[in-house]
Design brief:
Largest interface: A-B, 39 and 42 residues
Strand order of the largest sheet of chain A: 2-8-7-6-5-3-4
CATH class of the largest domain in chain A: Alpha Beta
Oligomer: heterodimer
Radius of gyration of chain A: 22 Å
Number of helices of chain B: 11
CATH topology of the largest domain in chain A: Aspartate Aminotransferase, domain 2
Helix content of chain A: 40-55%
Number of helices of chain A: 12
Structural class of chain A: alpha/beta
CATH architecture of the largest domain in chain A: 3-Layer(aba) Sandwich
Largest sheet of chain B: 3 strands, antiparallel
Shape of chain A: globular
Distance between the termini of chain A: 31 Å
Distance between the termini of chain B: 44 Å
Strand order of the largest sheet of chain B: 1-2-3
Largest sheet of chain A: 7 strands, mixed
Number of domains of chain A: 2
Order of helices and strands of chain B: HEEEHHHHEEHHHHEEHHE
Chain lengths: 391, 279
């Protein structure tokens, strides 16, 4: 084992900053320091670059640049979408989401239930993590203010049919928000075809540094500003623009758009190789999520009779970075809310590991991972009181 | 990432004494797959000298669970039985240079397994404290264990109790019970007061039940994405249905009995009966 080897397979948590992105943003830390709002050439020159970046972000989603506002992160985008919508539509008191949302959505909904008296409906999923669209349709009553359903689940990669869901929401007259933080750049998102009113994306899942996000607001959507102050972002998100990161986000979206074919082929092939290799070498292992309707970069595998944190620490010692839905890794005492909602059996819920790839992973890294993981699983199983090698 | 000591990482990476003892004199098994950690401890005991000659373990759990089990076996090998009986969870944690607060339950599990193995050696039926009430239904922790761990480790808050025993870390339905036990052990300062309520008419009772469910119980459940619906009131029998997250929660029964029943008994009448309405 080469001690210095590092294989990063935790790209749904955050990913490597693209060298081209770094290069694009660097001048904005030094000579291009103007404030885009200023009435002089220092600002004007910078404003021009911000406009171009906005156009690139808009292009990734096939929307107009005026429909994009920059935020500080995906969580801000989600908070803005949800709370801004409710503030602008105060007469309705019912909001609908799913049990498997990211905490940036789920905990906002729960906060609204607890502190603001909203009636919250959390839709369940089946064992593959899929929603029942009939149940969703029934949940959208006339007094429903907002529906929020993620585009892709961060833990399992399972995709939700946001085009169909959006159509149902539109038919019912309910504003539809989607957290597309994991989906953007990994699968094509053409918002001319997907009837979504609000959509959150985040830069650092697309190879920018952390600290930049965006919210798509379809023209005509009623929403209150989240940050109040100056006139930036057409008054919808006050605060001096984070110019270097906006430039980074523009570049990253451009790269994602150009690379989406690659993402769906090269990355998918590596993911499939990793997944099928692990599944064939390691008995008593199960794929969590819907294997046919999933992000191309993600696999979540449950290894029976062992615990995720122990797997991760052994992997880390071998230079491999992954993540787990086990209770122990999160500091909570129960496995991830996503796996619980899917009713993943306890025999492998605690031993679930997510491997998430990016275009920076190589075949050689996958080969190394395939050689490294099975002995670690075996070692932990050998000390588990529940593992019977004869079974 | 957890801030594990070098010793924890060492015992995790190179655990000592892993495996079974086929002709063990005492075996103790605690925890379960559902709870997320489990430990099976095997002891070889020399009846002449009264010493633990060998100790081995199998474990399902995180790094600190593996390290705690490894540390426990190192600690007790060669130890006279009467000394082993006095080993506390704190001894295990100290052997490892400390454990993160949230992981103290791993050391408690080690001690419990030791207790169970010693009882098994003595031929005592595995200690089901038959009379002890199960307080935390998510992690199946009974009052006897709670009292023992709270007293030994001088625990003061519900959070600490959760770190050491996991109790209260699931649906949260048993938090009022944990508070009661804490108050009972640590003094009357925070004891929940119980006062006699005046007798009321049926109509008054129905009104108060409805109000209590709407204003006090439902908001609590909604915090966790759940909800409750009042179906019927028949004398002191209250029929309700859990909705949302509560409906599928493994601790739903506990929620009904702890949160719903306790609140209604406190606010309305101590004779209230909660019945889950069938669908």
């Amino acid at each position: 084992m080469t001690e210095s080897r590092q294989v990063y397979l935790d790209n749904n948590a955050t990913c490597k900053v693209s060298p081209a992105v770094v290069e694009a943003m660097l001048p904005f830390f030094s000579e291009l320091y103007g404030n885009p709002s200023s009435m002089h050439s220092f600002g004007g020159g910078v404003a021009e670059h911000v406009t171009q970046a906005r156009e690139k972000v808009a292009a990734l989603l096939n929307v107009s640049p005026e429909e994009i506002i920059f935020t500080s992160c995906g969580t801000e985008s989600d908070n803005h979408a949800i709370r801004g919508t409710l503030e602008a539509n105060p007469e309705k008191k019912r909001i609908v989401t799913t049990k498997v949302e990211h905490p940036a959505v789920l905990n906002v909904f729960r906060f609204l239930a607890k502190r603001k008296g909203y009636h919250v409906v959390e839709l369940g999923v089946n064992k593959q993590g899929d929603l029942d669209l009939d149940e969703l349709r029934d949940a959208l009553t006339p007094d429903t203010a907002l529906l929020s359903v993620m585009a892709a689940n961060n833990e399992t990669g399972t995709l939700f049919p946001i085009d169909e869901i959006g159509a149902i929401a539109r038919e019912k007259g309910v504003i539809f928000h989607s957290d597309a933080v994991q989906a953007a750049g990994k699968i094509p998102l053409d918002l001319k075809k997907i009837p979504v009113d609000l959509l959150s994306i985040s830069g650092h899942k697309l190879h920018t540094p952390k600290g930049i996000g965006a919210l798509y607001i379809r023209k005509g959507t009623r929403i209150s500003p989240f940050m109040i102050g100056g006139h930036q972002e057409h008054g919808r998100r006050a605060g001096t623009e984070n110019v270097p990161y906006i430039i980074a986000f523009g570049k990253a979206c451009e790269e994602a758009m150009n690379g989406i074919y690659e993402e769906n082929n090269q990355v998918r092939q590596l993911r499939d190789k990793l997944e099928s290799g692990l599944m064939s070498q390691i008995p008593h292992s199960y794929i969590n999520g819907n294997p046919r309707w999933r992000l191309p970069n993600t696999t979540n595998i449950g290894f029976e009779y062992i615990e995720g944190e122990a797997i991760l620490l052994h992997l880390s010692a071998a230079g491999i970075a992954a993540s787990s839905g086990s209770a122990c890794t999160s500091g909570s005492l129960e496995p991830s809310h996503v796996l619980m909602a899917m009713e993943v059996p306890f025999t492998y819920a605690h031993g679930s590991v997510r491997f998430s790839l990016s275009r920076f992973n190589t075949e050689e890294e996958i080969d190394y991972t395939l050689a490294t993981v099975p002995p670690i699983i075996q070692r932990l199983r050998d000390m588990s009181p529940f593992y019977d090698p004869k079974k | 990432m957890w801030d594990y000591t070098k010793s924890v990482m060492d015992h995790f990476s190179n655990p000592r004494n892993v495996g079974k003892i086929e002709d063990a004199d005492g075996v103790g098994e605690v925890g379960s797959l559902a709870c997320g950690d489990a430990l099976k401890l095997y002891l070889k005991i020399n009846r002449e000298t009264g010493k633990i000659e060998d100790a081995r373990f199998q474990t399902f759990g995180c790094a600190s669970a593996i390290a705690s089990a490894s540390a426990l076996t190192e600690l007790i090998k060669g130890m006279p039985l009467e000394e082993a009986e006095k080993v506390t969870n704190d001894d295990i944690a100290r052997f490892l240079g400390g454990l993160p607060e949230q992981k103290m339950h791993c050391s408690v599990m080690g001690r419990e397994a030791l207790e169970a193995a010693l009882a098994n050696y003595r031929g005592i039926k595995v200690e089901e404290h038959a009379d002890a009430q199960v307080i935390c239904k998510c992690f199946w922790v009974d009052e006897h264990k709670l009292r023992e761990v709270i007293t030994e480790n001088k625990l003061k808050t519900v959070e600490e109790v959760t770190h050491y025993t996991k109790a209260g870390g699931g649906c949260g339905g048993c938090v009022p019970d944990i508070k009661r036990i804490l108050a009972d052990i640590n003094g009357p300062d925070s004891k929940p007061e119980t006062e006699e309520k005046p007798r009321m008419t049926n109509l008054q009772r129905i009104k108060l039940v409805t109000e209590t469910i709407e204003k006090k119980i439902a908001p609590m459940l909604r915090q966790d994405g759940g909800d409750i619906e009042l179906i019927d009131v028949d004398g002191y029998d209250i029929y309700v249905r859990l909705r949302g997250a509560c409906a599928g929660c493994p601790g739903a029964k506990a929620t009904l009995q702890n949160i719903v029943a306790e609140t209604l008994r406190r606010e309305v009448d101590s004779n209230i009966n909660i019945i889950e309405a069938s669908k």
